[in-house]
Write a structure and sequence with these properties.
The protein is α/β, with parallel strands linked by helices and about 425 residues long. The protein has 10 helices and 16 strands. The structure holds zinc ion.
Length: about 425
C-alpha cells in the first residue's frame, strides 16, 4: 500500500476511535496523579501498561528506586511500552508525563470527574497532558492495527515528576539509556502546545538565591546597625534601572510563544527579610540582618549561563562599591541550558507534513517559554531529534476548569500517526 493510502486508512481508523479516545482520556483523568506528592503513579502506569500489553506491546514498569522523591508510600513508577516492527527501521517514541499539578481553587466542575461537555473533556491534566498521552496511544494503536508489517519500533512511555523537574522520570530513564540511540531515534512529547504547532525547544533557566547580610541593632537606632532590607532595595533599584532595560532589548531568534517570552526575562520569585519566616505576633524592634531573594532568570539561546550569572554578580559588586557596608552571598539553585531541535530535523519535517495533511495548513514552529522534559532527552540522552507536539491550549495548563477539545485530540492523533509513517519509512531523511 502507498504511504498516502496507509495514512488515509489511519485517519479513518482514528476518527472511528473517537469514543474510545474520550473514554481513555476520562479514565486517565480519574486517576489523580497529583504531584507533589506523586500520588497514584503505579495505578496510572499499570492502567496504561495493561491496555498496551493487550495490543502487543512489551511493557516495563521501572521504579526510580532511590531517585528524588521515591518512597514506598510514593513510589516513582514509570512505564515504557515497546512494540517491534517486522523489518529493521528507526524507533519513534512518544513520551508523556503522567503527573498533574494540584487542582487549586476556582473549579466549577470536579477536577477529577472528567466531565464531557460541548466537545470538551474537563479536568486536571486533560490538557497538561493526559489528553496528549491518550492521543499518542490511540495513534500508536491505529498504526499497529493498520500496518502489521511496519518497520522499526514504536514506544510509548508514561513518566513521573515532570512538574517537579523530571528527575525520577525522564532524567532517570535517560541515565539508563531509554532515551538514546540505538534504542530510540525520535522522541515526540505530546505537551499541550496547540495542534498546529511543532515546539522545537525552550529557553534556558537559571535560578539563584541572593542573600544580603546586615547587622542587627535596635530598631529605634537603625544607624547603629546595617539594614539588609535597605541593601536589597539598593540592589533591586539597580536591577530595575540598569538590567531590565537591557533584558527588554534582547530578542531571540527562537520562535518562543507568547511573544512577550521572546525576550530575556527575570522574575523575582520571592523575597524575605527581617522577621523569621512564618513568625506572627507583634514584631520586635530590630534592624534586619538578612534579606533573601529568589530570582528566576529565563535566558535565550543567544546568551550563555556564565554571562547571565555574571550580569547579576556585577550588579551586586557595583552596589558594594556605592555602599561600603553591603555584604551579600549568591547561590545557584538550579539551571537548564536552552535547547532547540533544528527545523531541518526529519522529525520536524514529518510533523509538518502531518499537520499539512490533517489540518490543511502550514505548521507553526514555536519554542516554549518554560522548560519540559526535552532537556533531559537532549542533555542526558544526547538525542537531538526531540520535539513537543500535542493537542491542547498552553494557557489552560495548571488553570482551574482545564479542558481539552475532543476534535483537537483526534486531529493531533492523526498528525502523530502520519508523522510516524514518514519517520518509520525514512521519508524525509537524507538517503
Ligand atoms: Zn506538561
Amino acid at each position: 500500500m502507498s504511504a498516502d493510502g496507509l495514512k488515509q486508512g489511519l485517519f479513518q481508523r482514528i476518527a472511528d476511535a473517537r469514543d474510545d479516545l474520550v473514554a481513555l482520556t476520562r479514565d486517565l483523568i480519574r486517576i489523580p496523579t497529583v504531584n507533589p506528592p506523586g500520588d497514584a503513579y503505579t495505578d496510572c502506569c499499570e492502567y496504561i501498561g495493561r491496555r498496551l500489553a493487550r495490543r502487543g506491546f512489551t511493557v516495563e514498569y521501572l521504579r526510580a528506586e532511590g531517585g528524588v522523591g521515591d518512597s514506598d508510600r510514593y513510589p516513582r513508577t514509570n512505564m515504557v511500552a515497546r512494540i517491534e516492527g517486522k523489518r529493521p527501521g528507526p524507533c519513534v517514541h512518544f513520551n508523556s508525563h503522567i503527573d498533574v499539578v494540584t487542582p487549586g481553587e476556582g473549579w466549577t466542575v470536579d477536577p477529577f470527574g472528567a466531565e464531557v461537555r460541548d466537545g470538551r473533556i474537563y479536568g486536571r491534566g486533560t490538557c497538561d497532558m493526559k489528553g496528549g498521552l491518550a492521543a499518542s496511544m490511540i495513534a500508536a494503536e491505529a498504526l499497529v492495527a493498520d500496518w502489521p508489517d511496519f518497520p522499526g519500533a514504536i514506544e510509548i512511555s508514561g513518566t513521573v515528576d515532570e512538574e517537579t523537574g523530571g528527575y525520577a522520570g525522564v532524567a532517570w530513564l535517560a541515565e539508563r539509556g531509554y532515551f538514546s540511540q540505538p534504542r530510540v531515534d525520535y522522541v515526540i512529547i505530546p505537551e499541550p502546545l496547540h495542534k498546529d504547532c511543532v515546539c522545537l525547544g525552550h529557553r534556558g533557566v537559571w535560578w539563584a538565591e541572593v542573600e544580603v547580610k546586615g547587622r542587627i541593632a535596635h530598631g529605634s537606632m537603625p544607624f547603629l546597625g546595617t539594614s539588609a532590607v535597605r541593601g536589597m532595595a539598593a540592589f533591586l533599584d539597580k536591577v530595575e534601572r540598569e538590567l531590565y532595560p537591557k533584558l527588554n532589548q534582547r530578542r531571540t531568534a527562537m520562535p518562543v510563544i507568547p511573544e512577550g517570552a521572546r525576550f530575556s526575562t527575570l522574575n523575582f520569585n520571592s523575597i524575605h527579610g527581617g522577621l523569621p519566616e512564618g513568625q506572627d505576633g507583634f514584631p520586635a524592634a530590630l534592624v534586619a540582618d538578612s534579606c533573601r531573594l529568589v530570582l528566576d532568570r529565563r535566558y535565550l539561546i543567544e546568551e550563555n549561563q556564565q554571562e547571565v550569572r555574571a550580569e547579576i554578580a556585577d550588579l551586586l559588586e557595583s552596589v558594594g562599591r556605592e555602599r561600603p557596608d553591603f555584604r551579600y552571598e549568591m547561590r545557584d539553585l538550579w539551571s537548564v541550558d536552552p535547547v532547540m531541535t533544528e527545523e531541518e530535523s526529519p522529525l520536524v519535517r514529518a510533523l509538518d507534513g502531518g499537520i499539512a495533511a490533517v489540518l490543511g495548513r502550514d505548521a507553526r514552529h514555536i519554542a516554549s517559554p518554560g522548560t519540559y522534559d526535552q532537556k533531559h532527552v537532549q542533555r542526558i540522552g544526547h538525542l537531538k531529534d526531540c520535539v513537543a507536539y500535542g493537542p491542547g491550549i498552553l494557557d489552560l495548563a495548571h488553570q482551574p476548569d482545564e479542558y481539552i477539545g475532543i476534535d483537537d485530540m483526534v486531529q493531533s492523533a492523526q498528525v502523530m500517526a502520519a508523522a510516524t509513517v514518514d519517520l518509520l519509512t525514512g521519508k524525509g531523511t537524507s538517503a
